[in-house]
Amino acid sequence: MDGGEADWARREITEGPWAGWSMWSADAFELHAGPFYSRTDTDGRAICAFRAEAKHMNGGGFMHGGCLMTFADYALFAIAGDALAGGHSVTASLSGEFLDSAHEGDLIEAKGDVTREGGSLVFIRGMVTTAGRPLLTFSGIVKKVRPQRQAGGGPA
Questions:
Q1: Residues 14-45: pLDDT tens digits?
Q2: What CATH number corresponds to the domain at position 81?
Q3: Distance of CA 105 to CAs 53, 59, 62, 114, 131, Å?
């Protein structure tokens, strides 16, 4: 996600296998790359998920590392949702360690924690798993930003 002026409202899914989950309504890239979903788990923490499809695989038939990192980037914002308080924000840093592979049909999930929240920076760490098996550990920094103004005073 970025600090643009798009409508970043959460859209609840009411039908199908993802009923009870939600997604951000305005992120065309994440819709194309995923789609990715999130909800609040029974323990009150954000959980993110998607079902691995053929488009997520590399030439060797394993989940592409770029897909895992894209999903981790999505998860940063879900995990830090309360700390970001609905404002605009951008990924300032994201790093990951690949631990195992995933395959088409796997349910891919991510959970994590905010480790520190400052004035404009939120620090997050998390793990991507499938069937409880770790695939990727990640850490990131999200920067809170103000919407930019165009010349003439309007939003960018």
A1: 999 999 999 876 678 888 888 999 999 998 89
A2: 3.10.129.10
A3: 6, 16, 11, 29, 11
Tell how far CA 126 is from the center of its chain: 11
| Mean pLDDT computed over 117-146 | 96
pLDDT digits (tens, 9 = 90+) for 60-97: 999 999 999 999 999 999 999 989 986 789 999 999 99
Contacts made by residues 9-13, CB under 8 angstroms, sequence distance 24+:
13/37
Q: How many domains does the chain have?
A: 1
Helices (runs of H) and strands (runs of E) counted in the chain: 3, 8
| 123: containing domain | 10-145
The full length of the chain comes to 156
The whole-model pTM stands at: 0.86
* DSSP annotation string for 82-119: HHHTT-EEEEEEEEEEE-----TTPEEEEEEEEEEE-S
Please indicate, yes or no, if residue 18 is contained in any of the structural domains: yes
Amino acid identity of residue 20, one-letter, is: G
Structural domain contains residue 154: no
